Amino acid sequence: MPARPALVGHRGAAALDPENTVRSFRRGVTEGVALLECDVHLSADGHDVVLHDATLDRTAQRDSPLRTGAVAELTRAQIDRVLVGQGEGVPDLAAVLDAARRPDGTVVPLLVELKAPAAAGLVVRILRERFGAAAFADPGTAPAWIISFHAEALRTARELAPEIPRLLTTTATSPEFLTAAQQLEVAQIGVRIADARAADVAWCLEHGVLLNLWTARTDVELERALELGCDTLTVDDPVWARAIVGPDPLAPQEAP
Are 62 and 82 spatial neighbours (Cβ–Cβ below 8 Å)? Predict the structure, then answer.
């Protein structure tokens, strides 16, 4: 594992701008994250919706034209009326992928978390149409990953597009989780920082699987992640994290 993990901008830069908005993803890029992470649900009429929760209630701003309801019961047109902070709307995956680019045009890899397993087929199609299958040949340079807490979501993604790297995530690992990770041939597993153990690090090293730790929001969490060691580290505030972690091994460095 690298001496310093690559930083993943959680829901963009969730501590700095409204989470899972185009503004937040652009902020993550500006602050130099190596990767970005977003969440995807499915609308009632089968469109992708980049939002963390299954409902609008927590994130909709007070004066949003639509403030409540389950994403799965709303159409994409209805969701397009929702404001989620600083006047930002709820994007689709295409808009997030557009935002996940540095000023020089290079892609910032995106971890696409399937909150709704039913969205797997649509997400696979979007990623393949955007990048082509050949772009995913090497996980180290892949422009996107598919991640989920749901093994069935990754199973579907593996059947439809085995070339797109997969990340199975959990709060705490278990023998069942690790067996599923092997069966799904994931390139990376994710574990909540508070529940991660040295045994998880050892398992990843033994099986040639990368380790993501999530989500560092405090000095204690960040220090524990660094002490354990990981390949990627998910953070809400990349400015704060980079000040402690140091230069990101995957992000492009400024010329001297």
Answer: no
